[in-house]
Every structure is written in C-alpha cells, then in structure tokens.
Amino acid sequence: MAFLTEISGPDIQDAAAPRWVFDQIERWAEQSPDRVAFVIDHQDRLSEYRYADVLRHANLLAAKLQANGVRFGDHVGILMENVPQWVFALLGAMRLGAVTVPLATTLPESSIQRIAEHAGCGAIFADDANWEKAGRVSAALGSVVLSTQETDHDVGATAESPAGEKMRPLMS
C-alpha cells in the first residue's frame, strides 16, 4: 500500500502539508532525475518529461510569475490545450501560492474575458494556439500574458528565483 500512498498522496485522514507536491517532486528529481513523469505521444515522435524537467519548468514559471508581480493569493489564468505545459503552469503558480483559473480554450473570447475578469487574473499563461486570444483578453484586463516556453518574448526568468535562491512557496 505504500506505493499507492506515494503516488496518490497522504492518507485521507491526514492533511497534506502545503508543500507536499513539491516535496515529492523534489525528492523524485533528486533520487531519480531520469524517472519519467509524462510521456506525450505525438503522431511522429514521443516527448518525455522527467521529474527533474518538471521541477525545472515549475521553477521557471514561478520565477516568471514572480518577476511579473504575482504573489501569494493572486489569480493566474491558464488558457492552454491539455499538454504538460499546462501542468507546469499550474505547478509554477502553486509554487508561489497563487490561485490558478483554468480558462477553457473552446469558450468564446468574450466568455474567457468575463471569467478572467471575474476571477481577477493578473496574469494569463497561454500556448501558441491561444496566444492572440490571451493577448486580447489580457489587454482588456490590464494583465500580462505569459508563455510557458523557455525562450520567448515574455519575461526572461530563470529556473531559479529572481534572487537566485531555491524557490519555496510564499505562504502567508
């Protein structure tokens, strides 16, 4: 049963510590950096993401959010297809204690804008397919749109926090 606890988290009777997910990912990345976390089957190739990759991407996106003024309790929209980068955006926001707001890509732009406005999204992560839509919504809200890619036109953050220390959640 220990295997199921490791995969699914603490027993139901126990309250999970706020850092539980990061403790697990950091432990797996340290113990087995090449252990596969995600495999994506494209039509012409496979993409693998290892736990070290997941941790690096989460830290990168947390640093991007932090560099754009996102803090504990702020709301961050995610307007992306169902891809590993969606999970990285979620983990990056969680790393700072920000609240994620899933924005369905199939909704009309006006509905996405209403949801993001109602939630108070100060930043929106978007993939290439939804970049223009996210840009228009962000412009209307006065928020920032961010990419999950490491080399792009948004903030040039690194996998370390802006101050260079290891990322930790900014719990109040």
Shape: globular
β-strand number: 6
Helix content: 40-55%
- The unreliable regions are 1-5, 155-172
Mean pLDDT score:
82
Main beta-sheet strand count, sense and barrel state: 4 strands, parallel
CATH class: Alpha Beta
**Biggest β-sheet: strands ordered side by side in the sheet:** 4-3-5-6
Number of domains: 1
Number of helices: 6
Percentage of residues in strands: 15-25%
> If you consult CATH, what is the topology?
Rossmann fold
Radius of gyration: 16 Å
Distance between the termini: 34 Å
Describe the 3D structure.
The protein is an alpha/beta fold and 172 residues long. It has one domain: Rossmann fold (3-Layer(aba) Sandwich). It has six helices and six strands, in the order ααββαβαβαβαβ. The chain has a four-stranded parallel β-sheet with strand order 4-3-5-6. A two-stranded antiparallel ribbon has the order 1-2. β1 and β2 form a beta hairpin. α2 packs across α3 (51-67) and α5 crosses α6 (131-141). It is globular.
